[in-house]
Amino acid sequence: MTTLTCKTCHKSKANYKCALCTDTICKSCAEFLDENTFSFLKSVPEELKFSCYCINCFDEKVRATFEDYNETMEKAKDIIIYSKEQSKLTRLLKKKEPAYVVENCEDQQECLMRMSFMAVKAKFNCLVDVQFNSKKIIVGSHKKTIWSASGIPITIDPNEIRGHLDPP
Predict the structure, then answer these.
(1) Does residue 2 carry a pLDDT above 80?
(2) Running DSSP on this structure, what letter comes out for residue 86?
(3) How many CB atoms lie within 10 A of CB 146?
């Protein structure tokens, strides 16, 4: 029985392989990503679709995208949202962009985060006329609700709107 040696720390018991360079690595030297880590990206580059990387490959090919993705997710949490019911407040704002539409989400929060992520990636800081729709799916005895949403991305100055608009 042969024991594999870790490429990084040179200890035996290297039970993992880097998905990119296929070198053997131990658990403590491996960088793991969840399979849903980049789920909000429209298309995930091939080198980011794996779950196990060695430190070198992670630093060279994954880390920058991973940090950018996490930064975008944090900004998406802070985006300004106005629902369709608040259209009286936003009727004078310029809405030049087409509405973002997201479908097949588990809940309203996921819909909102997906649209917010797209808006932040496109350098917007606000979504207006946000509407949610739900559809019940029944398969045998299993019931599930699938959500969709739409919203128009815009850029506004948060300091300018404090006296005029009251965010929800």
Answers:
(1) no
(2) G
(3) 14
Q: How many residues does the chain have?
A: 168
Gap between the Cα atoms of 48 and 123, Å rounded:
23
User: From CA 157, how far away is CA 75, in angstroms rounded?
Assistant: 15
Each domain of the chain, given as residue ranges in start order, spans 16-75, 80-161
Mean pLDDT of the chain: 88
| Joined tokens for residue 8 | 């990084």
Within 8 A by CB and 6+ apart from 166, the residues are 89
The domain 80-161 is placed in CATH, from the list 3.30.1890, 3.30.110, 3.30.70, 3.30.460, at 3.30.110
- The amino acid present at 12, given as its one-letter code, is S
Burial group, residue 77, by CB count within 10 angstroms (0-12, 13-18, 19+): exposed
Give residue 139's pLDDT: 83
> Is residue 56 classed exposed, middle or buried when 0-12, 13-18 and 19+ CB atoms within 10 A define those classes?
middle
Question: How far, in Å, are 44, 76, 114, 139 from residue 70 at the CA level?
Answer: 14, 10, 13, 36
